[in-house]
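Internal tracking record. Fields below are filled automatically when a chain is submitted to the structure queue. Please do not edit lines marked as system-generated. If the sequence contains nonstandard residues, flag them in the REMARKS field before resubmitting.
Queue: standard
Priority: normal
Entity type: single polypeptide chain
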Amino acid sequence: MEITLTSQNYHEVVEQAQKPVLIDFWATWCGPCQMIAPVIEEIANERTDLCVCKVNVDDEPQLANRFGVQFIPTLAVLKNGQVLRKESGYRDKAGVLALLEGV
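SYSTEM-GENERATED OUTPUT FOLLOWS
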């Protein structure tokens, strides 16, 4: 299941998460974001050991700024509220799973 992340629920969802968090920073007008969306959704449905969140950068610019997002899509992997990895650009499912490896 994907969670829409906002400034209002960030603390509860990310900082208090009992499992690793994958955040997908995206926008409706971004072609690569639309291409990676089904991959993120598939991973969210398959990986119960992971909290998968989506941040629309147009709706939540403060969250995008907090993570230093300059390009989208950007994926961030966090554990215990700390960023472990952050990568920008489209990647296929294997690429996303590689980003999650060892988390």
